[in-house]
Amino acid sequence: MKNRRVVIGSRSSKLALVQAELVREKLKVFYPALNLEIKTIKTVGDKILDVALSKIGDEGIFTKEIEEALLKGEIDIAVHSMKDLPTQLPQGLKIAAVTEREDPCDVLVSKRGFTLKTLPKGSNVGTSSLRRSAQLLHTRNDLNISDLRGNLDTRVRKLEQGAYDAIILAYAGIKRLGFKLKLSVIPIEEMLPQAGQGALAIEIRGDDREADELVKVLDIPDFHLSINAERALLSGLEGGCQVPIGVYAQVDDDRISVKAGVFSLDGKTAVKDEIAGPKKDAEILGRQLAERILKDKAARQILDEVRKAGI
Length: 311
Prior knowledge:
By secondary structure, the chain is α/β, with parallel strands linked by helices. The protein has 11 helices and 13 strands.
């Protein structure tokens, strides 16, 4: 493979292409003679822009078509925003590498540079995420939450056009696109991120040893362990990217800590817990934390209600 053409699959959004290019350039450093091509693929989530994400479903709406191309051999590796990947991958595929993780926090963006505390009562805040809206209402139940769809640059343009007083975005995307915006970083303690937020997943066919060897130079083991813990927590709660669950894991030397929370859609109830242990037990700790949270009747009720609502 090191002497032939390698096709990288990516969504066609500006942010996705920037991320795919980051991966391409990193591989070029290690394999300067390799012919690396980026192929764009439109997903269901890219095509349906007038419906709330929670109404479409979350089973790979931003990844399914790319994974199908990977299984068919039309591409050799796929680059995803990790938070878009369902916890259950299609048979025959695997996450071969997790690149360096960008800041996982969410940010509040407004034309006047408001923070969560200074945002005026009744402000119209845009977000497409139930996780974000639930946590926002838990902190500020005096705000109005409106659905916000579109690629990152489209969302920013809607804010600038006055459709919203503020919007909530992932800090990682803003950084990668180099946007200069008036923003306020929301601390992890105030808004837990989506599992895998800020990280890039490199997905390959499970039996493709050449691709596995190629991309392993991109893998950052501690970030990979953190992501494994977060995805284990999400899987244990049977949650997806459109269920109001937040989680963040962090490795410190040989230890890993995992914080997680389940939030009611109206923001009135929040069930939070955390766990820590040896980093080698990352996935086990994620599952154990999920089990502990599920023992809380309020958390179980929230998840049951969300599923019954078809979200």
